[in-house]
């Protein structure tokens, strides 16, 4: 295979009549990038040329995914050890030997050509999903709110000059001034009266400014608008109060349910960003759409279904929802552990891949969801 040849090339040493020249040893992230290029060419039957910047982005993907796999493997081992019935153990290790490199290579090249940076906060997240048919993991690329913001501007019909995002609290003074017969364009007035004690969140807004002020748009989200989005999210991030859900925790060796405080302020701001930078408010220019954009649009559907299937397999009919009634409130029983079955003879793609066992030397942090 091309992969084997590539590996051999890295170990060859050039000989000269007078001295032996040593080929620089490629870092794990460089070897990953070479493998991605090789896999992409094999899958599309077209060799590709990437710029240095795009190659650096792919090296960054390796750095973040490598950390993700190590963290997930630690959790897998701990969970297997805590299972009372080990037939429910997850037997597929989180390592490079069990990653679907064919799909990952396609995603990585398209993401890099779009300019999405996994090492930038909230640009791009790798999410592993168990591929039971292949006995490995698919690494989905999920765009964060900053990634959607970047794409919206890049492909915008008219790129905005500036965008203001604000969360509004009960002590703030906010006045929306919408376009009307007496107002030539959208604008607003906003004042933070008590910066260190702003009260409860009541909503938020985004203001999109253009060189032509008559195109300016004020986007307003009420607290009810935000709650509708929160109820589709995780209580771990949104909190129990916004979602009506609880989270599972371990207490004295047993699973139980607990209220979650969440990160409401941050999640509300991200929600406003996602809404403001949607194509509903910043229209896309069809002439700018390229193959990479179309590819990711199609992959979003696949990722969304994989996320639904994963959640259903792990938490089907087990997530408690608070219902106000006369009966006393009790914590629901811990859910029955569902098995994550693997095929009898798994065939991980990595059997034909470069062995990525050396931890990368680059310093980095995993993005915060």
Task: Produce the secondary structure layout.
Layout lengths: L1 H10 L2 E2 L4 E2 L6 H17 L7 H31 L18 H14 L9 E8 L4 E8 L1 H10 L7 E8 L3 E5 L9 E5 L9 E9 L7 E6 H8 L4 H4 L1 H4 L3 E5 L2 E5 L5 H13 L14 H25 L54
Antiparallel strand pairs: 1-2, 3-4, 5-8, 6-7, 8-9, 10-11
Helix pairs in contact: 2-3, 2-4, 3-4, 4-10, 5-9
Quick gist of this model?
It is built from 10 helices and 11 strands. It is α+β, with helices and mostly antiparallel strands and 369 residues long. The two termini are 38 Å apart.
Describe this structure in words.
By secondary structure, the protein is of the alpha+beta class. It has two domains: 1-14 and 22-157 and 284-321 and 338-362, no CATH class; 158-283, no CATH class. Helices cover 37% and strands 17% of the residues. The strands form five sheets. The chain has a three-stranded antiparallel sheet with strand order 5-8-9. Strands 1-2 form a two-stranded antiparallel sheet. The longest helix has 31 residues, at 52-82.
Which tags fit this structure?
11 strands, 369 residues, 3-stranded antiparallel beta sheet, disordered C terminus, alpha+beta, two-stranded antiparallel sheet, 2 domains
Largest sheet: 3 strands, antiparallel
**Topology pattern, helix = H, strand = E:** HEEHHHEEHEEEEEHHHEEHH
Low-confidence residue ranges: 1-16, 317-369
User: What share of the residues lie within helices?
Assistant: 25-40%
